[in-house]
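Aggregate trends can hide what the representation actually does to any particular protein. The sequence in question and its structure tokens are set out directly beneath this paragraph.
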Amino acid sequence: MREMLRLFLSVVIFSALAGGLLTALQNSTKDRIEYQQLLFVKGPAIMEILDGCTNDPLIDRFKLQDGETERSFFIGKFEGKPDTVAFETYGGGFGGDIGVMVAVNVETDKIVGIGVTTHSETPGIGSRAKTDKAFSRQFQGLDIAQTFKVKSDGGKVDAISGATVSSKGVATAVDAAGQIYQRLKSEIVKKMQA
């Protein structure tokens, strides 16, 4: 009986130590892992839509609470002035959620650019939502407060031929970005000026 108790205590102590070490390791590498995910997953879209900014938006970022969701915002400085913010939203595509990074000029409330960050769309068809520059350019200069829909749904967005569902997903994500932006604009501006 004593032997079983000793074995049980050894397992409990070993488990507690291993769990503690894993937690400490996770906490100590959390920021670095987040930066690496930003750099390789979201970073290319951020750098593309904030092309020409004089800072590193992956470093100049902040988080805001939006209801139950914590959102990351990336600041773009142009001519030495922080006037553009980029953030990610999602819309449903053919293969699942499509992540879309949307950059907005906070002085004009106009879209500077959009870029697809993540998707599970069909290669060569729906995946063109990420690579088709003509598709993403049609959002540039539009007021973020307007409603975004593809033409087949009564909107103004030209869908990618053969990829209507993917196009709708991107339009839905940009529309969601407008709602988030309007809801959090005062907090966004405050954080950008800090």
